[in-house]
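Troubleshooting log. The previous structure file for this entry was overwritten by mistake, so regenerating from the original sequence record. Sequence copied from the archived sheet and checked twice against the printout by T.R.
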Amino acid sequence: METPTPLSALGSIQFPAIPDAQASLQLALQYQFEHSQWKSATEIETAQFNQLQILLKHAQQNVPYYTKLFEKHGIQIPERVDRVFFEKIPISNRKNYQDCGDDFSSKKMPEGHGQMAVGRTSGSTGQPLKFGRSSITQTIWRALSTRDHLWHGRDFTKKIGAIRLAPPDYAPAPAGVQGNNWGAGVDKVFASGPTAFLNASSPLEGQLEWLLREKPSYLLSFPSSLVALTRYAEQKGVELPEILELRCVGEKLSVEHRTYLKDKWRAKVTDIYSCEEMGYLALQCPKNEHYHIQSESVLLEIVDENGRACAPGTRGRVVITSLNNFVTPFIRYEIGDIAEYGAPCSCGRGLPVIQHIHGRTRNRLLLPNGENRMPRLGEFVIYKKYEDAGIRQLKCIQHSLEKVELQIVAARAFTEIEQKDLIDILLKNLGHTFEVELTFPTEILRNPNGKLEVFECRI
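Regenerated output below.
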């Protein structure tokens, strides 16, 4: 599909379009993306390290966590940053950032980055993290979202749908919520069709009713949710609506699930690799099923136990560095995923390739009536309400159709009244009166895939 004509901010001039300031910024980024993706891997890496030098100097001077880290390890930023120097910087993890508190935030920002906002990770790995981001960070995030649409030739006039997690009372089945356009990142730049959104914690019966009514051309959801919905439709003997593309996000898309979804929907299946802290990490290639790292925004490493780059085809830890977040800089941040580099892509893009992502797969909650659903635990409510307790980890384990265990690692003990409240919050969000065992281990161990899952079904 050809790129659509941009929206004009002037009703009197439609050709050529005169976009407003935000749309002009988005289009300027798309122009740069179109050129940078075809540069060689060496040229892209050189540009990244030039940008990284600016970020490192800012972090050393204005972020106490890095001031102390660099001083402790005797790190002096050279005039020219390269990979040899970069790999001398110690790798940080989520706990490191949690423990340092406000020392992770910049005390002074460069000019022109716009308003600051506070974000929080979803807690899907059991360890939520608060962080900051600027208007510039958000602008680049949205531009990469538009790049994904353009790469895969989506028709902006069609309806786009999403089944994602949301607060318990928002967009329940079968109604969901509707929008007039494709949302931030697109709405200022191109005319677009309607959107339909549904809460992923809705029962499968309601999800199917919503899907058959809305019939979006493009549908975004977790791979496990799409598989569960597909199997439910098969069990009920319901024919799935025609769709152009299934878009997967938020968890590992296995080869088996990709094949199954393509076969049952007879549609294109694409995947997105992202995280809350940095947005888009890698997008599926328009020509192949592997992923291109979004190098204009993130320097993504796959490293061995010594923090050195793995060879293509070798599994390693994913370590990421944001090139544009000067509010809370993430520098060599280990996110807990395992992945593999791939060989240079046949499409000709110089953006590095990820061949396989061995990330998390979300478990689904099983109910006594045979229903299964995406679990909601109320972890945001728990973390906010008991912020003074210093909760570091949280996990729910389903042991049977009637019993679950809530594990919490915290800095202080909880009173009997607080424990009852924790159970009430959990049950309200699970939507069933399970027997709840509340335990307080000193640590919650990671799964074999390296992830610390917030929900695990052991049935």
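Residues 112 and 136 are 8 Å apart (CA to CA). Archived copy saved in two places this time.
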